[in-house]
Amino acid sequence: MISASMLSRSFDGVPAVETVSFEIPEGSLFTLLGPNGAGKTTTVRLLLGLIAPDSGTATVAGYQPGQSNNALRSVCGLLTEPPGFYDRMSAWENLIFFSQLLSVLFLLRLNLKNFSVKRS
Predict the structure, then answer these.
(1) pLDDT score for 117
(2) Which of 53, 65, 55, 50 is nearest to 2 (CA)?
(3) pLDDT, tens digit (0-9, with 9 covering 90-100), for 92-102
(4) Which pLDDT does position 75 carry in this prediction?
(5) pTM (2 decimals)?
(6) Which residue, 34, 41, 72, 91, is most buried by CB atoms nearer than 10 A?
């Protein structure tokens, strides 16, 4: 489950997210829609503990962002922008690279035994 209660964040005095509250039940599909600058990415970064809120609280998969960031990141992942430096790698190659970088046994978790990446 993901929940946010009165979550707010501003940058240089400009509000990016203002008193956002919602609850997403486990197993649900949820989408944040809005124009550029609406606060979608900021909200997700708040939920993952990548930035701290000015006010409010959140819980993601039983963890509180800002207090259990390593545990939270072990069960959640995020790619908010297209990777600029790694744009020549496929999505799988990016996942494998970053999972190895973060010491996550990605291939074992997916039970992939003879996985190979084909380049076109």
Answers:
(1) 54
(2) 65
(3) 787 777 777 76
(4) 84
(5) 0.67
(6) 72
CA torsion, ordered 82, 63, 98, 81, to nearest 10 deg: 10
Both tokens assigned to 87: 């744009």
The token pair at 62 is 């039983």
Tens-digit pLDDT profile for residues 3-49: 999 999 999 999 999 999 999 998 888 888 888 889 999 999 999 99
Q: Supply the DSSP string of 11-73, one letter for each residue.
A: ETTEEEEEEEEEEE-TT--------TTSSHHHHHHHHTTSS--SEEEEEETTB-TTTSHHHHH
Question: In the chain, what are the domains?
Answer: 2-75 (3.40.50.300), 82-120 (no CATH)
